[in-house]
Amino acid sequence: xxxxxxxxxxxxxxxxxxxxxxxxxxxxxxxxxxxxLGMITPVRKQPDRPLRKSDKIxxxxxxxxxxxxxxxxxxxxxxxxxxxxxxxxxQTFPQTITAVLALTFTxxx
Length: 109
Fold this sequence. Notes:
Layout: H1 2-9, H2 53-77, H3 93-107
């Protein structure tokens, strides 16, 4: 379901003409549900053999990044103010959420 929603969103389809000269398309990171979409994902274990040491190292690296992102999202979901509608003009939402995240990460040990 998540992979289908991601495909439908168009986030993976960045037209080259929209990128600055010489810049590669953005690299996305995801869990094993996104394997095959051109994203950085953990390596899936084959049913008939264990993961190689290099695959385990890659999985650890990917999951360390994913963990931080997942915790940030979970933290945002607990905020009571996010359980109500956004009360300011919608054009101000990106600036507001950026400021809130900056304050959170600045003052959270």
